[in-house]
From TrEMBL:
It comes from Falsiroseomonas selenitidurans. It comes from the Bacteria. The keyword Transmembrane does not apply. Residues 10-238 form the ABC transporter domain. Transmembrane segments: none annotated. Pfam families: ABC_tran (PF00005). This is Metal ABC transporter ATP-binding protein. The keyword Calcium does not apply. Keywords: ATP-binding, Ion transport, Nucleotide-binding, Transport, Zinc, Zinc transport. Belongs to the ABC transporter superfamily. GO terms for molecular function: ATP binding.
Amino acid sequence: MSAAPRGPAVELANLTATHQRHPAVHHVTARFAPGSLAAIVGPNGAGKTTLLRSIAGLHRVDEGRVVLSGSRARVALLPQQSGMDRSFPILCLDVVLQGLWSRLGAFRAAGGAERDRAQAALEAVGLGGFARRPVAAMSAGQFQRLLFARLLVQDADLILLDEPFNAVDARTAADLLAVLRRWHGEGRTVLAVLHDLDLVQREFPDCLLLAREAIACGPTAEVLSAANRLRARRMAEAWDEAAPACAA
Ligand SMILES: Nc1ncnc2c1ncn2[C@@H]1O[C@H](COP(=O)(O)OP(=O)(O)OP(=O)(O)O)[C@@H](O)[C@H]1O
């Protein structure tokens, strides 16, 4: 990393988050240093999305805390594509402009400067000619590029990505990975939920292995040891949907 970190440290202190009182994330304690490029990995149902949404402040924390050093840190979240409605009649440029909403406020329309910025973000992700195109006419990979353009204009210090390379081809994945590397080079803190462990080992210096509880957090090579992976798998296999609600 070249720049001094501008992203916050992210501390998870004994964090528990539930769905209908069943713990999806259970007493997790972990820390990501300022400017980290870190992956959050674990089996299906391990609590990764719930954890990411808790860090973003979008899912209620039942116990423990999420602490971001630098209380004014701007946070941006790339949600999982599968959870998004793409049939809404909206143009690509307007989706990118949504990223400026917190600066514009609810009642101020985007001006020329904001539109130029949104257009530049579209160009940065290879969608320069798409500004007036309806979102419904985009492929999954193009839509993911569009969501990255919206993240770009948000200019966040902490960037949270939920399966950013899902359903995209190798070229799109490589282009979007280059954006992540750029954010990391700018000293932002980047946390990404991922399933591709080869990619994680190649590109992400730090890692949290989750199986509802934190199995390990730290340098990727250590976290993804065979013993830790086996433990995560066993804990996932032992998952009991009928287990009693968390008393925490
Ligand atoms: N809206 C919901 N209502 C009830 N339970 C939920 C809800 N969302 C998730 N869960 C449960 O919480 C647990 C963790 O889910 P979560 O989506 O956080 O896991 P994940 O690690 O992101 O999974 P995946 O890798 O499959 O995307 C799972 O057991 C899931 O069934």
